[in-house]
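Q: I'm a student working through a structural biology exercise. My instructor gave each of us a protein and asked us to get a predicted structure, then write a short paragraph describing it. Mine is Sporulation protein. I'm not confident about reading structure output yet, so if you can add a plain explanation after the tokens, that would really help. Here is the sequence I was given:
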Amino acid sequence: MHNSPGSGRNPRARLALGVATLALVAPLTVSGVAAADTSASTGTVAQWTTRTVAPGVEVRTGTIKNPAAAPGWTVTVQAETKARFTGAQAWAAVGTESWASQTADRLRTAGFEPVATRIPWPGYSDTPRGLMGVRVRIGSYPTQDAARSVASQVTAAGFRNVVEWAGYDADQPADVENINVTVIDPHRFRGTVEATHDGNVAQRETTSSVAAKLGSLVGVNGGFFLTSDADGVQGTMAGIGAYDGELTSMAVGSRAALILEDGGRRTRIADLTTTVTARAGHAEHAVEGVNRTPGLLRNCGRPGAIPTAEPRHDTTCTTTDELVKFTDDYVHALPTGPGVQVVLNSKDRVVSVGDRTGTVAPGQTVLQGIGPAASWLTAHAKVGAKISVTEDIRDDHGRKVRLGKDDSIVSAAPTLVEDGRIRIDAATEGVVDPLDLSFGFAWANNRQPRTMAGIDRQGRLLLVTVDGRLSGGSEGFTLAEGAAFMRSLGAVDALNLDGGGSSTTVVNGTLVNRPSDATGERPVGDTIQVLPRTR
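A: Happy to help. First, here is the predicted structure for Sporulation protein. I'll explain a few features afterward.
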């Protein structure tokens, strides 16, 4: 199912992005020369510079400003709800019409002047149309401290609330957006483009650090990864990842992925699923994970997971029965605890069977089982016996994805553009939940820093970052705005990569955007690197 471009989106937001379309479709090919466009209808100004980093690689850096936009700080009253899977008390940015009416009446009685605004569903391909909910706010203030002062009074009156910057709202234009667009033409570029975890899938490293080691022309951050020890080992990917032709993490259900074949000379975007199977003689067992802690599934998306087998962003599901494979790219202490561990040599022969401990030696593979999966290992893994592990990667058309040594995959969510049309499958890929508005609202529907990848009709790869959270004054994109922007660049397919404080663009070893974390550039899981020709 496809939407017409921009359907369901706020018309003012479309106008705010329109100038970006004009600026980038124009031939900005002269290195170091600025190009500016002004929209008479909106007063929006876009200023762009373009530099050629290598033949076939251009980096376009721009700022879009709307002097007419006048966001401020405000106080948003939150609606009480229940988290869908746990039933725990939760809070949403919007509520029902009856909640909004009653809340507004109570606020007026308490001496406040609330404003209720109807918030429609964005033009996602798999969520309801029409009203999402009603937002209730109080005031617009020039400073965050002024809004906090009012918020404390609202709290004292018995209302749960948060202080927010109205410039993050999709229902009004952004005043500043700082954007970097890298365009790689595989017909002219003689280097390679690859996703990389820099040799260790169990570490976090900044994009600029990886770029410096590899001598890359351009680097951007890649997919979703673990950031807390409570969810497993930090840096391991929360979605499919493949580097140098080897699958190093499994898919989260069926989620969008960027496939870089033959060193990026052929690229495509597709929803991918993974099936991994261990076989011992005539017996077989599903492998539910690769290079992750057994029992912990970040972003869920696997059969038997609790509370859901569907993809669920930034959620850690659990299971008590699974088999996990570890490759020698997992340069970290192996997970410990109850269960069984089997070590295989390079010929898939069992070297040892025992407790879960130690590390993966070069050239070896480790299988860890918990629950019934541990019993399967105990029954079938005998020293000297063979256990083979097969991997099957399929796209959403059922076609097999075969990995060669120069192929890599990076994944996140959701799909933004498909076959030239905006198609954001936000619910299917688990980044919003129509039945639980306490989940994913700000991540998807508010402006955030974003990293996105797209492919245009000429086969050119587009790597895009937009700063957000007021880094350099920039507010970011909503998912819908990100999709519209990618389509404005000519992308026929596009997906959302990891964003927030991870969003990073590095050119010739220099950080050229402004990541939003207060501590500076964030160490990430994997990255996408544009590498010069080596010979």
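A: Here are two points you could use in your paragraph. The chain has a mean pLDDT of 92. Residues 108 and 525 are 48 Å apart (CA to CA). It's a good idea to check both against the output above yourself.
Q: Great, thank you!
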